What does this fold into?
Amino acid sequence: MNKRFALFAALALVFVLAGAAFAAYEPGTKMTVGFVYVGPVGDYGYSYAHNEGRLAVEALPWADTVYVESVPEGQEGPVIDDLIATHGCDVVITTSFGFMDGTLDAALRHTDVIFGHASGFKRAPNMFTFMADFYQVYYLNGIIAGALTKTNKVGYVGAFPIPEVKRHLNAYAMGVRAANPDAEVLVRWIYSWFDPGAAAEATEALIADGCDAFAFTEDSPTVVQKAAENGMISFGHYGSQMYTFAPDYVVSGQAVDWGSILVDFLQKVYDGEYTAQNIANIDYWWLMSQGAVYPEAAPGETINPLYVDALKAYMISDPVYGEISAYDLFNLRSSQFSAPGVTFDPFQGPISDRNGNIVVPAGMWLSSDSLITMEWAFENVVGPWPGEPE
Amino acid sequence: MSWESWLISTISRTLAYGTPLLLATLGEIYAERSGVLNLGVEGMMIVGALTGFAVAGKTGNPWLGVLAAGVVSGVFSLIHAFASVTLRANQVVSGLALTMLGLGLSGVIGRAYEGRPLMNTLDEISIPLLEKIPVLGPAIFQDQSPLVYVGIIMAILLWFVLFKTRIGISIRAVGEDPATADSLGINVSRVRYLCVMVGGVLAGIAGAYLSVAYRPSWTDGMTAGMGWIVIALTIFAFWNPISGMFGAYFFAALFVLSFRLQAWLSPELLKAMPYLLAIVVLIVVSRGTLQKRMGAPSALSLPYTRGED
It folds into this structure.
């Protein structure tokens, strides 16, 4: 036992020394970027999308990448140490919210290495945060769902009742409301980021309650498949790869380009603008106008052509634009979100929650702080809402 | 939607979700009845899921996929049989190793199959005449996977074999008192090997059901912990195939209802319900005397060596 402990201590020492002897990144030289993923890159969801971002980095002539997949939250520390000691990573990117504290600890251990963490809020002189948020895209999908539902009931399968998912659900519900004031959004929670069985049965439960259009937060194409089995439409989550499972029923979806953020950041590291001393205030919160997120049914196809005619035929009376088709409203909002100076936001007042409280006063837009701590539910949302303010 | 169609769809979904639990539980009951605890169910299921998907996709015949899944998982389970019966290793460790191996191997080999839709899925069937029965007809006999009925038939068949035939007596004798069984001329090793293999075959078919029928696709880790529920269900069912069937459907009903009742009951509570129930049952049956009466095999997880008793 003692011998084994000695061996372990010696190994640990080697790692520490290797870490200490590691030199800081020299701008303009070859850069090695390491990635830590929470799921398998083949999950066709979250980690798949992040891996697409890594491939964009790999395509840079001066960058090499390595990655470790399926790392359980809480075990990122040793993985990061290994990426630095064995692969000599100059930059380490971790992509799950649960990696936040482990990444920060690693940033304090390896002060010469640059760290990036997606979806969190803790930073250090050598650690920045980044997020590509879907809420505008969910709003656009909501317009389509509201226009195409026959039952006036639109379903949403949610992973966890946390602010991020609630924000997306509310934006989706607001899109539905914009197209169809009579429609409701029914929600079911599955308490998992990945659980095909739960996603399947939650979808079936929503169908039993009369829903006929589906959006979701879960990392497998289950909801898309179950909806299609019943001849109902859905919106792909995390990129167009879910389209292949139901090409006749996926109308649009939420796609992300993590590469846009990563390439922008790493270019600045390469140019010497960002170093391991000055990124404590760097927080990328990228939306449609930066091109980080966009609606997409299939590669290069924003809306499934099978549904374009129905959307053009569906007329909405908008308070500002008068009679306008769902198709035109979708494109109008899409271009407003994408323009450099954003002229419209789903979360612009006056907005009341479903308990009648005014959550955004008239003339106000929600700040990003309010967006990332959102707990309330929009008026047309029906179903359980753990953590809802009175 | 009327309460009637709500009830029909709830029962129908319970059968659909309960079937993989049932198939794998039946297998684990046989393994444990012979005295071998196999914690490798999750691993055997996922190997079956990948095999079923790959073979069904390659050959275009979902039934070949199901068959291949049974064969491959049956062979895969021999690792545990060899370790626990022949080498007399710790069954807990060996079973856990099987789960980890299965999850890891399927993750690596399955990479080529990620994100591919399956063209020839195992289609749902309706039973003529029976589907005309009011409520029960559409709930049980309409648009179900044929494997649902395979599961029910297997439960009855395996119950009959275990309690009404000589083979069943041998299996239970080996699980109760291997030394006595041995002295009566029963080949303890062979019975245990075969029972572990039955467990492997059924877990493989359960996995294939998930990947070619329930949700036709392959995703790394797609069994998502079902194998562990099977371990609890085996105890819950007091090692009886018929109770196993009711246990699996009961658990499935709780799971399905946990989404259907969310509008009225706290989703956190509903989510915890099946697991709470499993814990309560485990506490109840862990009382030795009761356990004995309920059918727990006395020699469960104990390796057998001739002449050392």
About this structure: Chain A has a mean pLDDT of 91. Chain A has twelve helices and 17 strands.
